[in-house]
Amino acid sequence: xxxxxxxxxxxxxxxxxxxxxxxxxxxxxxxxxxxxxxxxxxxxxxxxxxxxxxxxxxxxxxxxxxxxxxxxxxxxxxxxxxxxxxx
Length: 87
What we know:
Elements: H1 17-28, E1 34-35, E2 41-42, H2 62-72
Antiparallel strand pairs: 1-2
């Protein structure tokens, strides 16, 4: 029997591929202002309009609604309905 490894591909597998992708995205958009869909510049997107200090969020906060709608409409691969052939 050979003492060779079973795998011919000895290329290193990158364990942090996701982190490298994020870093490339951060580098490419560095210095670009954050904007809404209408093009209005925003300094941050963590705040929201509320009715009082501990009150509910207001529906007039269109920037929050825009952010939430993007999150809600993201496609989850596990939940995608697959077409079936019949016939």
